[in-house]
Specification:
It contains five helices and no strands. The chain has 93 residues and is an all-alpha fold. 10% of the residues are buried.
Length: 93
Protein backbone atom coordinates (compact mmCIF):
# COMPACT_ATOMS: atom_id res chain seq x y z
CA UNK A 1 0.00 0.00 0.00
CA UNK A 2 1.31 3.43 -0.96
CA UNK A 3 1.42 5.86 1.93
CA UNK A 4 1.45 9.56 1.11
CA UNK A 5 2.68 11.93 3.76
CA UNK A 6 0.79 15.17 4.50
CA UNK A 7 3.77 17.15 3.17
CA UNK A 8 3.65 15.32 -0.16
CA UNK A 9 -0.11 15.84 -0.36
CA UNK A 10 0.31 19.58 0.30
CA UNK A 11 3.03 19.85 -2.36
CA UNK A 12 0.86 18.04 -4.90
CA UNK A 13 -2.04 20.35 -4.08
CA UNK A 14 0.14 23.44 -4.49
CA UNK A 15 1.50 22.19 -7.84
CA UNK A 16 -2.02 21.45 -9.09
CA UNK A 17 -3.19 24.89 -8.00
CA UNK A 18 -0.21 26.55 -9.72
CA UNK A 19 -0.90 24.57 -12.91
CA UNK A 20 -4.57 25.62 -12.92
CA UNK A 21 -3.61 29.26 -12.35
CA UNK A 22 -1.67 29.40 -15.64
CA UNK A 23 -3.54 30.81 -18.63
CA UNK A 24 -5.23 28.13 -20.71
CA UNK A 25 -3.27 28.92 -23.87
CA UNK A 26 0.04 28.59 -22.02
CA UNK A 27 -1.02 25.28 -20.42
CA UNK A 28 -2.07 23.89 -23.79
CA UNK A 29 1.19 25.00 -25.41
CA UNK A 30 3.30 23.38 -22.67
CA UNK A 31 1.30 20.14 -22.86
CA UNK A 32 1.42 20.12 -26.67
CA UNK A 33 5.21 20.57 -26.78
CA UNK A 34 5.98 17.95 -24.11
CA UNK A 35 3.41 15.41 -25.34
CA UNK A 36 4.30 15.69 -29.01
CA UNK A 37 8.02 15.46 -28.17
CA UNK A 38 7.40 12.19 -26.33
CA UNK A 39 5.29 10.80 -29.17
CA UNK A 40 7.79 11.82 -31.86
CA UNK A 41 10.63 10.29 -29.85
CA UNK A 42 8.63 7.07 -29.47
CA UNK A 43 7.92 6.98 -33.21
CA UNK A 44 11.59 7.54 -34.01
CA UNK A 45 12.51 4.63 -31.77
CA UNK A 46 10.28 2.39 -33.88
CA UNK A 47 12.66 2.97 -36.81
CA UNK A 48 15.92 3.58 -34.94
CA UNK A 49 17.39 1.02 -32.59
CA UNK A 50 16.32 1.69 -29.05
CA UNK A 51 14.07 0.49 -26.27
CA UNK A 52 10.95 1.96 -24.70
CA UNK A 53 8.92 2.68 -27.84
CA UNK A 54 5.42 1.98 -26.52
CA UNK A 55 5.87 3.56 -23.08
CA UNK A 56 6.94 6.83 -24.69
CA UNK A 57 3.95 6.82 -27.03
CA UNK A 58 1.53 6.10 -24.19
CA UNK A 59 3.19 8.66 -21.90
CA UNK A 60 2.86 11.25 -24.67
CA UNK A 61 -0.86 10.50 -24.93
CA UNK A 62 -1.23 10.74 -21.15
CA UNK A 63 0.43 14.18 -21.17
CA UNK A 64 -1.71 15.36 -24.09
CA UNK A 65 -4.86 14.03 -22.39
CA UNK A 66 -4.30 16.51 -19.56
CA UNK A 67 -5.56 19.34 -21.78
CA UNK A 68 -7.02 17.85 -24.99
CA UNK A 69 -10.24 15.84 -25.22
CA UNK A 70 -9.21 14.12 -28.47
CA UNK A 71 -6.09 12.73 -26.78
CA UNK A 72 -8.16 11.48 -23.86
CA UNK A 73 -10.49 9.66 -26.26
CA UNK A 74 -7.50 8.13 -28.05
CA UNK A 75 -5.97 7.09 -24.72
CA UNK A 76 -9.21 5.32 -23.79
CA UNK A 77 -9.10 3.44 -27.11
CA UNK A 78 -5.46 2.47 -26.53
CA UNK A 79 -6.30 1.18 -23.03
CA UNK A 80 -9.23 -0.80 -24.42
CA UNK A 81 -7.13 -2.44 -27.13
CA UNK A 82 -4.22 -2.96 -24.74
CA UNK A 83 -6.46 -4.83 -22.33
CA UNK A 84 -7.29 -7.30 -25.09
CA UNK A 85 -3.64 -8.24 -25.63
CA UNK A 86 -2.46 -11.53 -24.20
CA UNK A 87 1.29 -11.32 -23.52
CA UNK A 88 1.64 -15.12 -23.55
CA UNK A 89 0.44 -15.26 -27.15
CA UNK A 90 2.41 -12.16 -28.12
CA UNK A 91 5.78 -13.46 -26.92
CA UNK A 92 5.46 -17.14 -27.87
CA UNK A 93 8.71 -18.85 -28.76
Amino acid sequence: MLVVSPGERALKSKLAQAWRSLPSALRKTIVLVIGSTLIITGLLLVVLPGPFTMPLLILGLVVLALEFAWAEAMLIRVRHHGAKLNPRKLFKK
